[in-house]
Amino acid sequence: MVSGFALLSDGTARKLETVDDAVEVVHQQGAKVWVDLETPTPEDLQRIGTALSLDAGSLDDCLAGEQRPRIDDFDNYIFLVLYGMVGPEQTDVVSPRKLAAFCGRNFVLTAHADPLRTTRAMQRRCERQAARLLGHGADFLLYSIIDGMADEYVQLAEEHERRVELIEDASLEQDVDKSVLTQASAIRRELIELRQLAVSQRDLLTPITAGEYDHIAGSLELRFSHVRDHLARAIELIDAMRERLGMVRDNFHTALADRTNEIMKTLTLFAAVMLPLSLIAGIYGMNVPLWPSSDHPAGFWGILGGMVVIAAGLAMYFRRKYWF
Fold first, then answer.
1. DSSP state of 163
2. pTM of the complete model
3. What is the distance between the alpha carbons of residues 118 and 158, in angstroms, rounded to a whole number?
């Protein structure tokens, strides 16, 4: 799917809906263009790449493989590999979606194999105010897209924080089960992946904030620094959550140990009550004359009553000691 917007030299904005529209506009003098290719064919990508004189190897990288976030500097443009976290539908699962972007003085070309909420949100903004957004320059449009991606990292980290809080509360319950550890391990794996991407994306912006690229205006360096701050905040949240997940594991083992101790205490008290009763039963089970005699009519009930008294006495003693 091809979509885009152009600000022509006469100040009018135009929506681009086909590859032919995009190829036509990029050749116009003074036009500022954004072209977004969602799940493009190699032929469409090649046509626009040829019109913009883009590097063939970078065009191949747009849809092939899972490269790490990076910036390649060319004479007339820069090429970036970025990663958004979610598609058009809201999700709390880490699902990296690659975005390849070319940014020159008068154009931005974005290409991605999967739908991206960031680019679709930018399309909606351009439909309302394309002239203003493109009027700030192609580098400002690129900044807006990257800023939207950074916000996704923070939102996803905050969503995971809510999940961690629920698991943390569950781990403090007395009847906690092993599913808590399974959930904690799954979230921990997602957080590791999210942190790796956030760190790579943050480091990618460092040379931009230092003004190393001619295609990025110096006035945007502070804005890109704020984007780095957003990513740094996401990384801090992730690190804090990983520590809390370690506490979830400790809480589970503590609750398990407490539950085991309670069971052992109950069994021990039960055994302590039964031990003297078993002793009496064992003595009276021997083939020796005892009092009261087994021939005595009240002998059985007397022994049984004595055992009840002993058991009740032990129970009262344990209760006074607050052992149960």
1. H
2. 0.76
3. 18
- Distance of alpha carbon 108 from alpha carbon 45, whole angstroms: 13
Sheet holding 13-16, edge to edge: 13-16, 2-7, 32-38, 107-112, 97-104, 77-84, 70-73
CB 195 within 8 A of CB 232: no
User: What is the CATH code of the structural domain delimited by 261-320?
Assistant: 1.20.58.340
The domain ranges of the chain are 2-255, 261-320
Residues belonging to the chain: 324
Tell me 27's DSSP state. T
pLDDT in tens, the chain (324 residues): 788 888 888 888 888 888 888 888 877 888 888 999 988 888 888 888 888 888 888 888 887 777 788 899 898 889 999 988 765 555 666 778 889 999 988 899 999 888 888 888 888 888 888 888 888 888 999 999 999 889 888 888 888 888 888 888 888 777 777 788 888 888 888 888 889 889 998 998 988 888 888 888 888 888 989 999 999 999 999 999 888 888 888 777 777 777 777 777 777 777 777 777 777 777 666 655 565 665 666 666 667 777 777 778 777 777 776 666
Among 100, 64, 106, 108, which Cα is nearest to 84's?
100
Determine if the peptide bond prior to 276 is cis (ω within 30°).
no
Give Cβ neighbours of residue 135 (< 8 Å, ≥ 6 apart). Answer: 7, 32
Q: Which CATH superfamily is domain 2-255 in?
A: CorA soluble domain-like (3.30.460.20)
> What is the rounded radius of gyration, in angstroms, for the C-alpha atoms of the chain?
36
Quickly tell me which residue has 């990292």 as its tokens: 153
CB proximity list for 295: less than 8 A, separation 6 or greater: none
